[in-house]
Amino acid sequence: MMGQLNLKIDDELEREFRKVAAERFEAKKGFLKKAVEEALWEWVKKNKREGDYAERLHTHERNH
Fold first, then answer.
1. Domain for residue 13, yes or no?
2. Residue 58 sits in which domain range?
3. N or C: less crowded end of the chain, CB within 10 Å?
């Protein structure tokens, strides 16, 4: 099964994203999907790490 996102973003961000994604993936079929998935995974990894740190800090503060 595949999830689906339908959203509106800033016009300039969309243009730049499409331009960079086309360069990175040589505008081959599915290049936008690949670029969006890569960007979302990076965002999740980054924010999950920060969230884990914040949770550990909060737990530490509660215990001391």
1. no
2. 29-64
3. N
